[in-house]
Amino acid sequence: MSYDVLIIGAGAAGYGAALTLASANDKFDWAKDKKYLILDSNKSDLNAGRYINVAGIEAINGVDLINNLKNQLKIYPACTQKDEKVLSIKRVENGFTVFGENQNYEAKIIILATGMHSFEIDFSEVEVIENIFAPKPNKIMLKNENNLVTNGVYVAGLASGVPSMFACASGDGTKVACDILKSWCGKVAIVHDVKI
């Protein structure tokens, strides 16, 4: 199966992107048949935190927050999440082949939401640079211009250089999803929930 968007990393940015993309499927004809996949090796910084100052979220530890995000994503059948360590990415004729430890995947677009600690995926189109926006030394980011690394490859969250706050990372993932939606429909596209 080929995915329209494959997201690497299930932290704040990865879920921000996935939830936004998948929620568009029921709202726009041009998005209704799109398929999305998140690959994650359970290394998110969310696991180690406690979140008290995130707007709209009651105080919660990171493990519970990740479980809530996983359950929220299940509302949208267009997006699947798999436990998989990504080893390498290669550009092919119609997009990308993502080589995992257990399986390989095909995708048209890639979102790298891999955090700011390291980038261990073999992918020649990515340039790892010092993260000058990080509050601690020896952190990395991926060189990008407005979240675009190269044609068809986006970076979101801490790997893009946003501040290491949940809301910033999640919002950056959502912004990347909106950029992708815009590229598909040719105009600014946002996805709002409806009033009940």
Q: What do you see in this structure?
A:
The protein has 196 residues and is an alpha/beta fold. It is built from three helices and twelve strands, in the order βαβββαββββββββα. Strands 1, 2, 5, 6, 7, 8, 11 and 12 form an eight-stranded mixed β-sheet that branches. Strands 3-4 form a two-stranded antiparallel sheet. Helix 1 (12-24) links the parallel strand 1 and strand 2 (36-40). Helix 1 (12-24) packs parallel to helix 3. It is globular.
The helix content, as a percent range, equals: 10-25%
Q: Give the uncertain stretches in residue-range form.
A: none
Structural class: alpha/beta
Question: What percentage of the residues does DSSP assign to strands (E)?
Answer: 25-35%
Count the beta strands: 12
* 3D shape: globular
Q: What would you report as the Rg, rounded to the nearest angstrom?
A: 16 Å
Order of helices and strands: EHEEEHEEEEEEEEH
Please give the alpha-carbon distance between the first and last residues: 36 Å
Mean pLDDT, all residues: 93
- Tally of helical segments: 3
**Largest sheet report:** 8 strands, mixed
